[in-house]
Specification:
Elements lengths: L20 E7 L14 E6 L2 E6 L3 H9 L8 E6 L16 H7 L4
Antiparallel strand pairs: 1-3, 1-4, 2-3
């Protein structure tokens, strides 16, 4: 069973701050879990295995929480993005609604 947030004494302080941070997360789509992936924040899919996620977790915490849901050898990347229009990625041909999701800000 993977560790939980309460397993680490640093868990309470290992967040991105009061506001959620924006991340680009990719995992091998072939390694997706059978059920929905717990994004630990508000997320929008861009393509199979590719997500924009706003999360209060630090990059390290988000990376590990996603990693624990995937098979041990699954490829995974988690990159922070500046959460303002100048920091948003440019994209074309991705899942519908991504730009509207970015403009909408945090759902929480």
């Amino acid at each position: 069973m993977p560790p939980t947030a309460s397993d680490s004494p640093a868990a309470a302080t290992d967040t991105a701050g009061d506001a959620a941070a924006l991340y680009l997360v990719w995992h091998d789509p072939e390694a997706a879990p059978a059920g929905p992936l717990d994004l630990h924040g508000d997320g929008h899919p861009l393509a199979d295995g590719l997500w924009l996620i706003r999360s209060p977790l630090s990059r390290s915490k988000l990376y590990h929480r996603i990693k624990w849901q995937l098979p041990g050898d699954a490829a995974l990347a988690c990159a922070p993005l500046a959460d303002d229009p100048d920091g948003w990625p440019k994209f074309k041909g991705m899942a519908a609604g991504a730009l509207a999701w970015l403009r909408g800000g945090s759902a929480g």
